[in-house]
Amino acid sequence: MGLFDKLKDQFQSSSPSYDFHTSTHPLPLGPNAVFRYRYQRGVNLGSWFTLERWIASHPFRNAHQPGQSDFDVASGRDAKKVLEEHWDTWMNEGDWRWIKEKGFNSVRIPISYYHLCGPLPEVLKGTEFEPYHHIFEGAWGRIKQAIEMAGYLGLGVLIDLHAAAGAQNADAHSGLSNGKVGFWDKHSNLASTSLALRFLASELSRIPHVVGLEVLNEPANNSKLQGWYRTILDEIRSIVPVDFPLYISDAWDTQHYANFVGGRDDFVVLDHHLYRCFTDQDRQKDGYTHAHDIRSGFKNTLSGQSDSAKGNIIIGEWSASLDPHSFPPNIPDTEKDAHRREFVKAQLELFEEKTAGYWFWTYKKQDGWDAGWSAKDAARAEILPQWIGGKRFKGDPPVGVKDSEMKGAYDAHTSYWASHGGSPDPTVFAPGFSQGWDDSLTFLSHPSGPSRLGFTDQWMKSRKIEFENYTNKKLGKATWEWEHGFRQGVEASLRICTY
């Protein structure tokens, strides 16, 4: 019996009931939509499909020089055997259990366009990987199996196009080792990427526990990128609904693309990657100083960026890693871990307050101990919390608690505004509170595990439309009062129903 079959038998009785191939499209707001709108606490499954030698070196044992990228592996000896062996062994039953038991509720899976060539051979046309169809043709079936296994565990999945034709950045994790950004050089590269993304969106949007599709990882920023984002998002939206989340990288220009995301009406999310170990400035600060900087100046920066993106911002990659020069000289490893622990604590505090989620980079490494980059090692060293899943659900509150809380909030609202010039329509506050309370309990009591509403503005937008349609009444200037009620209903339920 394979891993999937074992997981299916073991978890089917306690997992959400849905068919992997025939889920509702689009998703109505309710339990099935929780996966996409909840606060995402995730981990990256780095170097499973899109390889990085520093994470997993064994697949590179027969690679062609310089031996750093998927292309080098594909052009080396026994590439098909080497890759399929790696794909089939990198994640096992214990790995999936560990992720779930630590409280993570989603995984981010980096894949590349050439991994789609089995069902989509034309994706390789005119690209560097065109001669290697036979090597990668088995990848998509394994990716689908990974998605399905995650779903049976109640884990969400963010699929990330980590490498596009021609390479969208100069790093080897874009598929090539030549250090060039060739993505824009040929029409065939753009055509391949468009085809890959439309295929992925069509396949994935039907699966409730797929929390989104990231259209391109860390593209080098230039004058063409925003226009390309606009074009590719429109192409994808022509075949999937506005409520299927599409993630875009900030290309290291966070405020600019926060404004871009905030100006859209569909479900688009900005991905920012936060590392503090690569620059000369980073090397001059120890872990406690980094933690202080995150809690002070960067907190204000991220808060403004989140506001610009209307709350649709996540940290798709972050870590506990600090440069070796960040530590005082000759301190023991236990003290280094103390620096990392405070650094991680500051990051998590900020993410929980100012973003809609995060994914640690990365789940594990193949060789050696690395408590900076490996989530498994960071957890063993108690740098990551032993439980990362947030507050736990107490259960439904006693009868009457909701009404009592709603009355108190409504009285405070109307009293305040009566003495501050009045408000457009205080009668919509209580319905907003009630809806926020009920929706929050839907997230807290979800079969996949307790969570909280993460993409609040995006969810409220749909709920407001439902309210207006149901009451046959446009909120207009009173929208903010309904939203205030909604937010206070969510906050009250979290205060009373979690511990």
Automatic annotation (TrEMBL):
Family annotation (InterPro entries): GH, Glyco_hydro_5, Glycosyl_hydrolase_5
Pfam short name (any one): Cellulase
Keyword tags: Glycosidase, Hydrolase
GO CC, one annotated term: cell surface
GO biological process: glucan catabolic process
Span of domain Glycoside hydrolase family: 97-365
Domain of life: Eukaryota
Record bears the keyword Lipid biosynthesis: no
Coiled-coil stretches: none
GO terms, molecular function: glucan endo-1,6-beta-glucosidase activity
Family of this protein: Belongs to the glycosyl hydrolase 5 (cellulase A) family.
Listed name of the protein: Glycoside hydrolase family 5 domain-containing protein
